[in-house]
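okkk here we go again. third time trying to get the 2-acetamido-2-deoxy-beta-D-glucopyranose bound version out, last two times i messed up the smiles copy paste (missing a bracket lol). double checked this time i swear
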Amino acid sequence: MASWLSLLVGCLLLLNLPGNDCEKAKGQDIEEENTFLDLHATKFYVDKSSFIRDFVLMDTKIVLLTLPPKWGKTVAVDMLRAFLELNVDENGERVYWSPDMLTDPNLKISRHQAMPNIFVDPNLKISRHRTLITAHYKRHPVIHVSFHDVQGDTVESMLPSLTEAIARAFDHHRYMQPVLSRDAVGPDSVSSYNARYSLHIFEQIRNRTVDRETLKTSLYMLVEILNRKFGTVWILIDAYDHPIDIGQTQDLAEADAKMDYLRDLLQKTFKLRWHFHKALLSG
Ligand SMILES: *[C@@H]1O[C@H](CO)[C@@H](O)[C@H](O)[C@H]1NC(C)=O
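finally!!
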């Protein structure tokens, strides 16, 4: 019996989710890797799907999920992503699931995205909550970032790995580039200017050449453009506290600067509260 201690902003709530997790099962397809889907396929999966319901119904906008290492946070975050995230093709058009997808030779979404809904499997506890599944299954834009591989004890030394972590989220949403390109030539000069600007930043981030001040506002920008296209965003940040914990520099000024930088980045990401529906910070 694992006890999931979930510290909410302002209050404390206990979620009891049974079971242990297997070691992370790696997918073949690196970019669309999803530890939950891989693990579920192995049958070693211990059902924690009721966490989806707990998270969706939780009356808190930013949820901090704190657990000891190796207690399945990554799997929980990947499960939420597999459940919530809407399917989009490479041009930024929503794709709705159909049985023909599995045999469609021109399918423009990934293997994981094309899977039939596994959450209606009666072996999963979430399957009993049909209304919730109808309301939320693959209905939301999701930003997923993992700070798991971020390292460095100063802002400068942390930047390459932090850029990489954030750029992966942008790579995942690369279909927004054609969308922004179309908006950039639109009739409204303000929105076309904004689209050109966002497109430029998008490229810089995906090129891994973005400067530190722009990087700080990058997730904020991604929330904003996804919200404009698809409605309120769900934000999942895995290992959010990892960059804070690692690297013990003797230089207190450097340590403070790093903390300030990370705090600014998160504060900016969550600044426009009506642009995102809910956020999970796991650590
Ligand atoms: C990104 O990289 C490509 C290829 O190197 C380059 O053509 C493009 O100008 C770069 N974009 C930005 C905004 O840096």
